[in-house]
Write a structure and sequence with these properties.
Distance between the termini: 16 Å
Largest sheet: 4 strands, mixed
Family: Belongs to the ArsC family.
Structural class: alpha+beta
Protein name: Arsenate reductase
Radius of gyration: 14 Å
CATH topology: Glutaredoxin
Pfam families: ArsC (PF03960)
Enzyme class: oxidoreductase
EC number: 1.20.4.1
Number of domains: 1
């Protein structure tokens, strides 16, 4: 198993760019297509810790239709935010690169270099 993993959506240009950046550096990450391999609440909580995020909202894509449909803008209950991401994985910001106890969002892709 690779020591680097990427939570990846192949349809996302930033995700593809981040994966290419890793591969250009000779890194063969474990690719987790989170839209096909559903995450658990524990997975999301672990990612939040590794990213250093205080709230699950920081990991959410607020421009997704589900964000508006579920009226998440004013939701303060962290468990409900996580539940929404579990039910609608497109709400999860991507890509996320993890190495050991650290993680970074690949927005921009170069941001992941600080943990490599």
């Amino acid at each position: 198993m690779s020591e680097v993993s990427i939570y990846h959506n192949p349809r996302c240009s930033k995700s593809r760019q981040t994966l290419a950046l890793l591969e250009d550096k000779g890194i063969k990450p474990q690719v987790i297509e989170y839209l096909k391999e559903p995450l658990t609440a524990e997975d999301i909580q672990g990612l939040l810790r590794k990213l250093g995020f205080v709230s699950a909202r920081e990991l959410m894509r607020s421009k997704e239709e589900a964000y508006k449909e579920l009226n998440l803008k004013d939701e303060e209950d962290e468990s409900k935010l996580i539940e929404a991401m579990l039910s609608h994985p497109k709400l999860i910001e991507r890509p996320i690169v993890v190495k050991g106890s650290k993680a970074r969002l690949g927005r921009p892709p170069e941001a992941v270099e600080e943990i490599l």
